[in-house]
């Protein structure tokens, strides 16, 4: 075997090893971040019907296109949980960050962090000012489609259409607008990212 081929094989081995390390780190990090609990009611590949309990969230409203709004919303929510603009202790980071159209025609969005389950509205630190709002979302049945990759507008639209079609075929009615859920930071490689489109749906 020639020297060049041996070097090439060695380089491929190094890339594979680094990829394995990256996956291991990603799995560990995701296992340490709290995510909302739910009961799986039905699953069909990447699509799942879930029953969620009531969730406490911190939210802001931001205008603009989807990517601009979620970036603008992240900063004040992060400042709230890390106690940058209020007294008291910081709050553990959770996943996902969610985004729901508030007024679709006006490009107005609700950007939310789900609070750790140990908190109630009464025990959550009070937000400074009126920009960050604390509220409880009631228990709900939601349909979700899970996918990896960089969450571009085109990819999200494709997955939202796929979920809508599946729900229509299953005879399950949708309530309200879609919610987009992002589980990873911007530095996570696309293949390792977890994204979801969710709808609140009618349920027995």
Automatic annotation (TrEMBL):
Alphabetized Pfam families for the sequence: SOUL (PF04832)
Domain of life: Bacteria
Gene3D superfamilies: Regulatory factor, effector binding domain
InterPro entries noted in UniProt: Reg_factor_effector_dom_sf, SOUL_heme-bd
Name of the molecule in the record: SOUL family heme-binding protein
Species per Swiss-Prot/TrEMBL record: Bosea massiliensis
